[in-house]
Amino acid sequence: MHNLLHFHTPHIIMKKILVTGSSGLIGSEVSVYFSQRGYAVYGVDNNQREVFFGPSGNTRWNQKRLVNELKTFEHHELDIRDRQGVIDLVKMIRPDAIVHAAAQPSHDRAAEIPFDDFDTNAVGTINLLEAVRRYCPESPFVHMSTNKVYGDRPNSIEMIELETRWDYHDTSYVNGIAESFPIDQSKHSLFGASKVAADVMVQEYGRYFNMPTCCLRGGCLTGPNHSGVELHGFLSYLVKCNLEGRNYTIFGYKGKQVRDNIHSEDVSRFMWEFIHAPRVAEVYNLGGGKDNSCSILEAFEIAGAHSGKKQVFVYKDENRIGDHICYYSDLSKMRDHYPNWNITISLDETIRQIVSAWKNRLSI
Ligand SMILES: NC(=O)c1ccc[n+]([C@@H]2O[C@H](COP(=O)([O-])OP(=O)(O)OC[C@H]3O[C@@H](n4cnc5c(N)ncnc54)[C@H](O)[C@@H]3O)[C@@H](O)[C@H]2O)c1
């Protein structure tokens, strides 16, 4: 293992943050956000996304961007399944904060690679938790969880079919789904189950060892730096199809299934708030809420308005296993615990940015 760079001036020692999955959508956004605000950022990634999804999942371009553009970023080529490697790295850095965003992130892909999925999502998470408990237990630990921990149980909520989307008919969910929603006895996909294991373990390290941990149960996290592929990265992939004039395949629910979208910068802003006023064993439904939600059909319209191209698509009657018919987060708890935080980037602006980023990357 190589020596750490020392990012400090003679007078100021910088705070250190360890970010796993740093070449991915969330990890890279968090790295930029914290580096620009004075943190030394230690990124961990091994481009496993390309192994999971093939060449279009390659994240090396993003790794290079961070190394070239950030003054206080250091890349560590490490697989989080390498337990000893993770322990050694945490021991050496002793970070002041940890953001864990490395994962096998697709529920469809997990069924084909169940061992890789579980070893990455569940075992990789305990490798990191235990290393942190041993060497820096007081450091806030932010874990990227997912709304798939709720399995397909949100589909049992009474729904109403509107012209372009499904919505909750049951008024108890008028503001969306809260953190008290049950997580078991429903179908999760193997991905959802491995993320449940990690989510509960992160909570347990908080409760059992009194560590400042939190799980962020994301909906669709998105932004211009996603390497969207069909199996993961809803808006990013949809916009890519739109720009390339490629068919987008809708799987079931008439294309009216509703997704909750949040820009990765608003995700980073929440992490900043938590890390600077941490709590123990917390869970938050991190999403854009009802205002930033859209159905696939609605997303076609917004993307088309920004690109000037009409979306072509094919429809398959069979829905994805465990897919939500309608999901948006109730943001009350996040706003209540962290009043400085709110959504700052609208869905329309997010899609505008994704269109512009793909145009650059695809040279369209
Ligand atoms: N993007 C979403 O819509 C979404 C929604 C809910 C939850 N999440 C969660 O947020 C987190 C980040 O998601 P993302 O969209 O940034 O994913 P991403 O695939 O863009 O980034 C994950 C990064 O982790 C790396 N990685 C994967 N396995 C690794 C391993 N074994 N060792 C080291 N690095 C590894 C990948 O190479 C990739 O760069 C994940 O935990 C995901 O489950 C994402």
Record keyword descriptors for this entry.
single chain; 364 residues; alpha/beta; 7-stranded parallel beta sheet; 3-stranded mixed beta sheet; 39% helix; binds nicotinamide-adenine-dinucleotide
Overall description:
With 364 residues, the protein is α/β, with parallel strands linked by helices. It has helices at 25-36, 48-53, 60-69, 83-93, 107-110, 114-135, 189-209, 234-244, 264-276, 296-307, 332-337, 347-361; strands at 16-20, 40-44, 73-76, 97-100, 141-146, 159-161, 166-168, 213-218, 220-222, 248-251, 258-263, 282-284, 293-295, 313-316. Strands 3-2-1-4-5-8-12 form a 7-stranded parallel β-sheet, sandwiched between helices. It has a 3-stranded mixed β-sheet with strand order 9-11-13. The longest helix is centred in the middle third of the chain and has 22 residues, at 114-135. Nicotinamide-adenine-dinucleotide (NAD) binds next to helix 1, helix 2, helix 6, strand 5 and strand 9.
